[in-house]
Design a protein that fits this description.
about 5% strand, about 70% helix, 3 domains, three-stranded mixed β-sheet, about 300 residues, 12 helices, two-stranded antiparallel ribbon, mainly alpha
């Protein structure tokens, strides 16, 4: 089997598989070895043979020593190779980070000799979208807009990694016979969560720095810059709105639970209506609701690990 390397830049443009997809691909490769070949090229800049397409299939084939086909591609430089990767991925799957990939594709097309208009036209044709959509994707963004985009990508990646690790932990617990050991599960998950946070430390630091810069800009401009496309309301107005919303929610809850409160009242023989008694009844009923919510949280926690 060829000894291929993973180009870190190229890898960022591949969609990561979740645990279920990974298991399904592994089974497929073991059962049928007539899949598409692994595409690779020789990178003259690094003097290494690198994967262009088939990162997941290559990892599985190498792990299980499977016989798999390879096909070499030739490009003058990394820019041309990366543009090929992006074109291949855009025709094969949904783009989870379309704006990032579209912007990179347009930049590469321009770098390789096309005008920006020609690049936008070509990328729009590849994706099957309107040119105006591509122009919107490549439009410069403010620091605030970029922050929200980065945050969205970060949260999505973090959730995917966590879900994948949860599935792995469940399989391991089942295999080793401690799937019912809540203390063991919590302990092992704590270790995994620490590793995940370390893995995302750089992204977290970058987000915090951007958020800090935005906050500084807000304070320097009187606290009313554009945030997420909307101008921040004045503090007094926001506070008044918050109070009104609070009252509305309180009235909604009272209306929603009044029949339950009266039922509780009659069941417990509270006798004549007194405002103090009503307050106590509401308090007790609130405690019952909190207890139910806590029970639901525990049930959700157990469900997460398949217990």
């Amino acid at each position: 089997m060829l000894d291929l390397k993973i180009n870190a830049l190229f890898a960022t443009y591949f969609e990561a598989l979740d645990y279920g997809q990974e298991q399904q691909l592994e089974k497929s490769l073991k059962d049928d070895l007539t899949s598409e070949p692994i595409l690779w090229w020789h990178n003259p800049a690094t003097n290494q043979d690198e994967i262009l397409d088939g990162h997941n299939r290559y990892a599985i084939a190498k792990k299980h020593k499977l016989d798999i086909q390879f096909h070499e591609k030739h490009f003058e430089n990394e820019d041309a190779a990366l543009l090929f990767i992006i074109r291949t991925q855009t025709t094969r799957r949904n783009l989870w980070n379309r704006e990032v990939i579209v912007k990179k594709a347009v930049d590469l097309e321009v770098k390789l000799g096309k005008t920006k208009t020609q690049a936008v036209q070509d990328v729009a044709e590849q994706l099957g979208v309107a040119e105006s959509t591509v122009w919107e994707d490549v439009k410069p963004k403010s620091a605030t807009q970029q922050f929200f985009d980065d945050k969205k990508v970060y949260e999505r990646d973090l959730e995917r990694v966590r879900n994948k690790e949860v599935e792995k932990l469940k399989q391991r617990a089942k295999r080793e016979g401690w799937v019912e050991d809540e203390g063991k599960l919590e302990s092992e998950w704590g270790k995994i969560e620490t590793e995940i946070q370390e893995q995302f430390a750089e992204a977290t630091s970058r987000l915090e720095s951007t958020a800090s810069a935005i906050q500084t800009a807000q304070e320097a401009n009187g606290g009313s810059p554009m945030v997420g496309g909307k101008r921040r309301a004045k503090k007094s107005t926001a506070s008044a709105a918050a109070r009104r919303n609070g009252f509305k929610k309180a009235l909604t809850y009272i209306s929603k639970f009044q029949n339950d409160v009266l039922y509780f009242w009659h069941q417990n023989g509270c006798g004549s209506v007194d405002i103090a008694d009503v307050s106590n009844a509401l308090k007790v009923f609130g405690q019952l609701i909190e207890a139910e919510q806590e029970t639901d949280k525990k049930a959700a926690k157990k469900k997460k690990f398949g217990r």
